[in-house]
Amino acid sequence: MLRYLTVPVTAFQQNCSIVWCDQTMAAAVIDPGGDLPELLAEVDRLGLKLEQIWLTHAHIDHAGGTGTLARERGLPIVGPHPGDQFWIDGLAQQSRMFGFPPAEPFTPTRWLADGDRVQIGESVLAVRHCPGHTPGHVVFHSAEIGRCFVGDVLFAGSIGRTDFPGGDHDTLIASITQRLWPMGDETVFIPGHGPESSFGRERRSNPYVGGT
Q1: The domain containing residue 181 runs over which residues?
Q2: What DSSP character marks residue 193?
Q3: What is this structure's pTM?
Q4: Domain containing 56 — which CATH number?
Q5: Does residue 199 sit within a domain?
Q6: Could you count the other beta carbons within 10 Å of the beta carbon of residue 147?
Q7: Is residue 146 domain-resident?
Q8: How far does Cα 85 stand from its chain's mean position?
Q9: Are strands 14-21 and 26-30 parallel, antiparallel or unpaired?
């Protein structure tokens, strides 16, 4: 069965998630934005074999540590969707703009598209392309445990920003209502920032998408 641990990283307190198969102890890290020593210490503490990096999107707080981690550990980079290529190209500029350590450049080993699947050990997750916050944003859905790792698409009580280049409010709302809600009200999501919530709770009470 899939298990996960969420570790807030960087000054932005971005929710990096370590996910692993409890049968094989093979692990992936979702959105390693920074603070790599802390992340790797948790991997070691849990006795995991880190095998992959998965990216929801390429904003600096989610992708800033990706190039370094991939190089140091020889890991494949899976995701995001090709729509975020320009954000990857601009990581060095993002680093300077937001006061992050310099981000090493990288090229994803595998780009993702809507309907793809990713696998770690015996656990398989479905990929949905959910643009709006960024053009290439994807989410990772584990039907096995009723969890979805949504990056900055949706938050408890809020939604992702759409005022960055490539963002679009109507597109984001469509991603939430057409791609996330069908996963079911009971599905718990792990957002890129802040506490977990469920799709049902947000459908009922989120002021941006409630009642949709």
Answers
A1: 2-205
A2: S
A3: 0.98
A4: 3.60.15.10
A5: yes
A6: 22
A7: yes
A8: 16
A9: antiparallel
Domains in the chain, number: 1
Q: Are strands 147-151 and 138-142 parallel, antiparallel or unpaired?
A: antiparallel
Residue 34: Cβ-neighbour burial (10 angstroms; 0-12, 13-18, 19+): buried
Q: Is residue 19 part of a domain?
A: yes
Structure-block tokens of residue 6: 């969420």
Q: Is residue 24 part of a domain?
A: yes
Tens digit of each residue's pLDDT, the chain (212 residues):
999 999 999 999 999 999 999 999 999 999 999 999 999 999 999 999 999 999 999 999 999 999 999 999 999 999 999 999 999 999 999 999 999 999 999 999 999 999 999 999 999 999 999 999 999 999 999 999 999 999 999 999 999 999 999 999 999 999 999 999 999 999 999 999 999 999 999 999 999 997 77
One-letter amino acid for residue 86 of the chain: F
Residue environment code for 106-118, b if the CB has 16+ CB neighbours within 10 A, otherwise e? bebeebbeeebeb
